[in-house]
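Here is one chain, start to finish.
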Amino acid sequence: MITDDCLPDMTTARFTVTAEDDSEQTADLVQGVDGEAFSWFSQDAHAATPVREDPELVLNCTDGAILVYGLTSIGGMSLSDYGYTSSCDLHMRLNEDLSAPFSGVCSCTQNQNNNAWHDDAADGHCGNGLEIWLR
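Its structure:
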């Protein structure tokens, strides 16, 4: 269990995003886990939990929820703190979501800065991988 002022006495989940075109390019984000974690990736309403945008727990403490509302938003998690230009939080396109043909995790980097985050899917930012580690 990781504890700090952002994630006090909470079990955490580590999210590792891997770039579509470069398996060595990754970003780790940490989210607090509560009793509603099994509602993640569903349309069920649930509370946001604290998110740290790095595994060392020093960057941006914010609240985020993983919710489905036309797309599956991974709230509070962005690649901007890793130095990439990103216009929104990470999100996914699941089978029943809008624009479902664009599959995988979407970075919101839109090939900016000469495609600094190495994904080049047809829409400019989807197709990335995601691992979730619960602890």
